[in-house]
Amino acid sequence: MRRPNRQAHVFSLSKINIQSFFMAGIAFIVMTFLIIAMLTTADNHSRFSSSALHDWTGQMQSDWFVHLLGAENRYFLDALEDYSTPSLTTAVLELATNMNLEDPRTFLGRELPGFSGFDDTLVVAGQGTDFTNTSIESAPPTEEVLREQTGADNPSEEGEQEERSSTEMADEEPIIHISHAHNREAFHPEVEGKEDLHPEENIVKVGEYFADAFREYDLPVEVSDDDVTGMLDERGWDYSRSYDLNREIVEGAKEEHEELEFFFDLHRDSVGREHTAVTINDEVYARTFFVVGEDHADYEQNLEVATEIHNRMEDKWPGLSRGVLTRGGAGVDGIYNQDLSPGAMLIEFGGVDNTYEEVYRSADALAEVLQEYIYEELEEE
């Protein structure tokens, strides 16, 4: 009777093991390079950073983290009314789908247009302000409307485009810069029909009036009247890149004027008059709203300034400011060029149904508050 060849069997097993280890090593190297490639080539919103980890874990219910800590220290569980451990199935569902079974908004937010507004953080709510009437950006112009407006802007038979330059005080270096990323946002009572965007009657007029109000307080200011919407069309850029193009304008102004410190991007909100008009001392004002982009490291500085201005306005004109909100994440710009300076703000002046007269009153009021704040900052410097 022949004995089995154990040496051959052992050698065969060893060969299989070696092949398995070799293949596992190759797979590990490939996966490592793939992960590194994803981490280094992703944009700022997608990279695995502390903020990304915060957003990821933020999708989970806080009870889970309390229970994890409570496993080591029972005192943490005293903060919970219900000591039962959350369902593991629920936690996996939340991580995999970003849907919270206890919050119906998470089922609808990515499906219904405009519902993503609930992702905004209403830091300070003015009178009557809640998540149902927060700031809404204007819809991009249709190709037909843009084509008609572009033709109206360039009546020259020779087809030469007149360059629109910035106006400024010639005697002093400006310290305030006013721009309009959505420069064609219009007010319905001031235009024929119900046009949301207009090449001439638009938010730029508010910027020019706002600048004159600052000049009354001897503050030098520069106003950008660049046609951002028209420039986007010339470059073939999508309307969502308005802030990218406006950034070029602001950065150019900073290079030209080193004293610039305060940057105001003026907009017109898209909500109705019932939310954007208020009567104070028998006069109607267009309400303001401060929007802070939270997708940059120092946004809390911008938030602090916006909150301070809101509070000062409430002291003088209660109800004039609709509040302060932070906005970021997918689907929005999330920076609004506010990373260029702690003194940068995005200000919504009124809505589609306000008149110039109402908006100008608000511009006067806000300029009065801002000039006090600006002079205080200049004295500290």
TrEMBL record:
It comes from the Bacteria. The keyword Cell inner membrane does not apply. Pfam families: SpoIIP. InterPro entries: Spore_II_P (IPR010897). Keywords: Membrane, Transmembrane, Transmembrane helix. The chain crosses the membrane at residues 21-42. Residues 131-170 are annotated as: Disordered. The keyword Endoplasmic reticulum does not apply. This is Stage II sporulation protein P. It comes from Salicibibacter kimchii. The lineage of its organism: Bacteria, Bacillati, Bacillota, Bacilli, Bacillales.
